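JOB MANIFEST
job_type = single_chain_structure
chain_count = 1
residues = 494
[input]
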Amino acid sequence: MMQCESPYFAAIDLGSNSFHMLIVRINDNDKIETIDREKQMVQIARGLTSEGILDDNAQQRALECLHRFAERLRDIPPQQIRVVGTKTLRAANNSDKFLTQAEQVIGAKIQIISGYEEARLVYAGLANSISENDQRLVVDIGGGSTEFVIGTSHDPTHLESLALGCVSFTEKYIAHNGGVNKGNMRKAYYEACTELEEIRKNYLKAGWKTAYGTSGTMKAVAEILVEKDGGAVITRASLDKLVEETINNGKIIATNVTKLRRDVLPAGLAILQAIFEQLKLEKIHVASASLKEGLIYDTIGRYSDHDSRVETVKKLKAQYNIDEDQAQRVSTTAGRFWSQIERANLPGVSRTKILYWASQLHEIGLNISHSGYHHHGHYILRHSDLAGFGRYEQYILATLVRLHRKKPHENKIEGLDGTAREAFVPLLVCLRIAALLHRRREDIDDTPALKETYDGFHLSFSKDWLSNHPLTMAGLTQEQSYLKNIGVVLTIDS
C-alpha cells in the first residue's frame, strides 16, 4: 500500500488548445479509479503574438478556467496535484507573471515541461491504457506542438516534439488569410511535411506495428468519420475525403464537434494528412489516454519505487562515467548536513531529493574539463532532456551543480528571489561543504555538525580534527570568503 496523505491525485494539463483536469483515487487494492475529468478549450495559443507575448485576453481565459478547476481540487493535498504547461507556455516570454497568478489560483506549483518530457508523458498515458506490447507509434496533435513517440511496452525509444499545432497553424495559415480554402490548406500541409522531414527517416527505419493517435484532434476526426471508420480508427482514404469536403465547404460542417474545435480542426486535418503521408500510414487507432493520464501515473510513481527521475539520474551517471563512490560520499555528507537544518520550502521541488541528485551529479562535467567542470555540468543539466524533471526542477539542479565549487556570484543565482532564494542557499551550503570535505576522495571519520545562525551557518568539528587536516582547514577558510559573496557568514570551530 502506498504511503500518501490522501488517496486522491489530480493532473492538470495546460495545453495550447485545451486545459484538461483528471482526478483519480487509489483504492484499497492500489488500483487507479477515475473520479472526475474536465476539459475547457481555452486556446491560449491564439493569444501568443509573433513577439512571444501572451496577451491579456488569453491570460484571463486561462485564469477563469483555473478558478473553476480550483473548486474541485480543494480537498486534494497540493503535493498530489501535478500541473504542467506545454508549448505555448514554453514559448511565452512573459509567462512568469501569469504563472505566479495561476499558481495562486490553482494552489499548486506549475511545471513548464519540455517537448521531450511532454512526449514521454503522452507515451506513459497510452502505455498504461493498452495491453499489447508490440512496437507502437504514438502521435499527439496539440494546439501548439505534436509529439511523436516510438516504443515497446513502457519503454519509449524515440521521442520528438515538433512545432505542429492545430491552433498555431490556424492562426498562421487560415484565420487571417481568407479562411479555409485549397491554397491555405496546402500551405499548412506543406509546412507540416517540411517539419516532419526532421524525423521521417529515423522513424520509418525504427518501424512499428500499430499507430495510435491520442489527441482531441484525433478524437474529433474519428467522431466525424464514425459512420465510415467506426469511431476507433482513422483511415487514410476517409481522411483524404474529409479534407476534400472541408475545402469544398470552406469549413467543417459536422454537428457532432463543438464550434471551438471546428474552428481549429481544418489546420489539424492538414497536419494529420501530412503525418499520414510522411510516415506512410494507412490507418491510425484512436486512444483516449494522453498526457494527463501519463502525468497521473508519473505522479503516483513518485510515491512508490517508480520515480522516473531516479532512472534519469542513474542513466546520466552511467553516460558520463561518474565516480559512484565519490558521488555517494558527497551525497551522504550533504544529506547529514541537510538533516540538521530547516529553511523555507522551495515550491514544486523536493529539497531533500534535489540535494541528493545534485550531489550524485556534481561531477558530471569532469570528463570534459577538470578546472571548469562545474560549468560544463551546469550546461549539461540545464539543456539536456531529463525525463521526469520539470523546467524549474532542472534549473535548480543545474544551478546547484554550477555553484558547488569556486567563487559563487549573486548574478548566477538567477530567477531566485525571496523565499525561493532563502530555500536554495542552505542546499548550496550543504553541497559545497560536503564536496570540500571529500576533496581527497576519501571517507571522513567524523562528520562535523552544521547549525543555522542569524546570518549564516556554524560548522563545528570534534577536538583536534581540523589541526590534523590542514588542507581541509585551508579550504574551509577560503570557503568563508567565497560564501560572503552571496551574503552567507560561515563560522568554524573545533
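[summary]
The chain has a mean pLDDT of 93.
Residues 182-206 form the longest helix (25 residues).
exit_status = 0
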